[in-house]
């Protein structure tokens, strides 16, 4: 049980992460554990179980997901949030889907740990760096507008990384900025592959233009 009424301590993200502090599995954080200041309480989210860094209605992170999280997120911010739990309750597996692309990704915590904010950012970036398969390209081959947006994004990216193959990140076109995670039960139900296992923590990721 989290001791804070809104699920997260006020100004939780302002204190420097201390790798030498052991957080017990119950996550009974003592008051002031994050060195918070009541004058800087994070805004309340529709999804209080989710870390405000990740929630689409409260995140302050501006992250171009084309870059590794350690490069795309300000270093001081990354050091503060990367090892912080992604959820109030200990969570070991998260399924992320999106209306922006056809793939899904399951993020699992290593033994003895929980899913962190850093794991979510790293997982999304790594998944979107994979090359687009022939069968995936077939989804948009006849959609001229979408196809041209992908090819335009790919051309811009290729000027920098010299990888001439299409990547999943190109699928996002001109919307590579992380907007956050949110719940959409109706979409998740339609998106779920019949016969496959369900994941309790299923979240939809959103992206916006730079």
The helicity comes to: 10-25%
Largest sheet: 5 strands, mixed
The number of distinct helices, counting runs of at least 4 residues, comes to: 6
Query: What class, by secondary structure content?
Result: alpha+beta
Rg over CA atoms: 18 Å
- What's the number of extended β-strand segments? 5
List the helices and strands and how they pair.
Blueprint: E1 63-64, H1 69-72, H2 75-81, E2 93-98, E3 105-108, H3 117-128, H4 134-137, H5 144-161, E4 177-182, H6 185-191, E5 202-208
Parallel strand pairs: 2-5
Antiparallel strand pairs: 1-4, 2-3, 4-5
Provide a short characterization of the protein structure.
This protein has six helices and five strands. The protein has 210 residues and is an alpha+beta fold.
């Amino acid at each position: 049980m989290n001791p804070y009424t809104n699920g997260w301590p006020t100004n939780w993200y302002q204190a420097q992460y201390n790798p030498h502090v052991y957080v017990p599995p119950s996550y009974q954080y003592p008051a002031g554990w994050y060195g918070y200041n009541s004058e800087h309480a994070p805004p309340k989210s529709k999804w209080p179980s989710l870390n405000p860094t990740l929630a689409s209605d409260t995140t302050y992170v501006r992250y171009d997901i084309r870059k590794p999280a350690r490069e795309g997120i300000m270093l001081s911010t990354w050091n503060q949030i990367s090892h912080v739990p992604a959820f109030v309750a200990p969570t070991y597996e998260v399924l992320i889907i999106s209306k922006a692309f056809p793939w899904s990704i399951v993020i699992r915590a290593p033994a003895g740990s929980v899913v962190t904010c850093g794991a979510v950012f790293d997982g999304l970036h790594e998944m979107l760096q994979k090359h687009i398969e022939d069968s995936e390209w077939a989804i948009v081959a006849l959609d001229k507008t979408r196809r041209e947006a992908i090819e335009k994004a790919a051309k811009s990216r290729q000027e920098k990384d010299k990888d001439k193959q299409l990547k999943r990140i190109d699928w996002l076109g001109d919307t590579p900025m992380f907007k956050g995670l949110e719940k959409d039960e109706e979409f998740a139900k339609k998106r779920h592959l019949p016969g496959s296992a369900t994941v309790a923590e299923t979240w939809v990721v959103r992206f916006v233009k730079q």
